[in-house]
Design goal:
The structure holds two protein chains of two kinds. By secondary structure, chain A is of the alpha+beta class. In chain A, a hairpin with a 7-residue loop joins strand 15 and strand 16. Chain B is α+β, with helices and mostly antiparallel strands. Chain B has four helices and 13 strands. Classes of the chains: A alpha+beta, B alpha+beta. At the A-B interface, strand 17 and helix 4 of A face strand 3 and strand 4 of B.
Amino acid sequence: MMEVLAPGRLTTIQDMGRDGYGYLGVPCAGAADRLNLRIANRLVGNPEGAAALEMTAEGASLRFDADARVALTGGALELQLDGAPAPMYQTLSVKAGMELRCGRITQGWRSYLAVAGGIQADPVLGSRSTDTLAKLGPAPLEAGMRVELGAVPVPGAGAYLRSAPQYATRVRLRILAGLHQEWFAPEALLALRNSVFRVSSQSDRIGLRLEGSALQRIKQGELPSMGMVEGAVQVPGSGQPIVLMANHGATGGYPVIGKVIAADLHLAAQLPPGAEVGFMDVSRAEAMEALRRQELRLSQDLISADASLLAARALMQLAGNHASLQQAAVSDGKRRIRIRK
Amino acid sequence: MKTRFMGEGGLLVETADAAGAHALRRALLQRRIPGLRELIPGYASLLIVADPLSTDMDALAASLSVPVDAGTRVPREHEFKVQYGGEDLAVLAKRLGMDTAELVRRHAAPTYTVAFLGFAPGFPYLTGLDPALKSPRLARPRALVPAGSVAMADEFTGIYPQATPGGWNVLGRCETNLFDVSRAEPALLAPGDLVRFTASP
């Protein structure tokens, strides 16, 4: 059990979402950044689609009732475990009674906290995801709530991720050509590729709303409603594009000018308001190659490690990351290793 | 069949109408395609979503054909009692050049067909609207449309299952539970079902 001391800005329970109910109008939902959800789960030995916490802009503060193994991934947090800085992208051992303060997200926009055994909540249509559009699944975290954890069958070895992803505030997302090119003036197709858009503060789990040169449509009116996919770049009448995120509606009716490739969806999910976005074309073959490479890297970069190796890695990382770091402590469950500058 | 890729794992198949999309969906369900994630019917299309790492999307696209006999479902009939008098009833009647009683009479006259569900869980897109009533969506969508609102836009009419933001013209309200995850079939309406509205005083 975890007690929520402070929920952060928006902290929800997420897994890989509800597949197969789009025909009823039910969004898939699930983690906005599925890559980091999967990494966090694998670092604690869970199936990669287990339910975990998705924290936006600012992380939660939690107190653990029992010993637990956790891992944090995604946007860079000012993480503190019982008052001492703690690293991301590796298994952390938490003792009963300890407090984990995730702090602000200083790079990126969404962070994931996985706990060995997964987060328990009543599944709705096969998923524990909080659907922020259709309001299905568990409610967002609030102070004082208690979050139930699943049983841990076997305490596996720990792990860390070699070369963790870095998130910038200026990215170029790779796109495939959209379904409705003929709805746009040639200038609009060029403007999408040659100009820089800014991420609006209206962006959420449903869509990344962009502001920049208006993409002029040459066809007016509405399209008949059709199924939509994550990453689709829709252009409503205003000409300001919207990149559909994990919690987009199952169907939509705005013309689609492009589709962010699957391998870049985690980059889109990590863009904070104000970040700058450009787009560049790739072929479907290149998009598939990027996706395969990402999968391969994921399995190659996850390294099993025992407690002392993890402790050493944590210290190295903290010393490297924080010029002002004066002291750090790491516990491997038996010993507590403390280092001072 | 006209089929276009929608990203790495998406295939949008154009169909003659919504019924064609549902027939294709039923046929594909029987094929048990590995890696299949979603089959989402639209107004005249079916979106197939599969995991592109475990599904040969090109082979899947090439294998699609108009279903010969995918089985049919006996449509159910539903009647909803509507308290007409919604937010947009008067403005809409004026724009259409009729009084509100005439608008209500024309809206309640047809037997509608559920074309497909979309927009929100259980939200039915109903076809069969009197062509004289066809109206554009609101220029400014509302932040919150109450659950049970009966509304129309373009050539469709529909019912909001839950309170959501929305841009359709609201004609009235009815009491119903269109979507409930605790039921074996969460959505009350299914594509092909017939729907009638009656004005309740």
